[in-house]
Amino acid sequence: MYSKKNKKKLSSEEKKILEEIIRVDHAGEHGATQIYRGQMAVFKKNSAIWKKILEMAEQEEVHKSTFDELIVDMEVRPTSLFPLWNKAGYLLGLGTALLGEKAAMACTVAVEEVIGRHYEEQVEILTKNKINPKLLKTVKQFREDELEHHDTGVNHEAEMTPGFVFLSKAIKQACYLAIKVTKKY
Ligand SMILES: [Fe+2]
Ligand SMILES: [Fe+2]
Known about the structure:
Blueprint lengths: L11 H31 L5 H26 L8 H17 L2 H29 L3 H23 L8 H21 L1
Helix pairs in contact: 1-2, 1-3, 1-4, 1-6, 3-4, 4-5, 4-6
The chain binds fe (ii) ion (2 copies).
The site of one fe (ii) ion has 5 residues, from helix 5.
């Protein structure tokens, strides 16, 4: 349990910070599992790429469950855009996988670059405000996992995808926008 003890002590500003963090990460981790679900639907079951994606997907399941728990414990309202991000995530996974293995990995590289930075920002905020040390530890751990996913993508020649720069830029911008909107809505 994350915060039952100190929940009452939080100022409204601190509460707002925590709520935004949990709301956006909850949606993001669900989105991540959907991306991989979409990709795994395209690739042949038990192929090398499928297995590699499964490894990452399994970590995303852990992230997802953690934020499922947090959103209940901390009584945070989930984003109203939740169904949209789930569908968008699935389609992004499906679409990139249909473009090929490298494009699927390019999707991971782009998404994880944004998420790595996003978690880094949260580490800074939580460190500075000393609101919830356990959440800080969780965010740090997840950031490490996401950066590993990023490197897995790079090692699978993501950057050799035709049109990588364009594809990556489009995905990153969509992720930044999704994060921005989800914090509030
Ligand atoms: Fe994740
Ligand atoms: Fe990830």
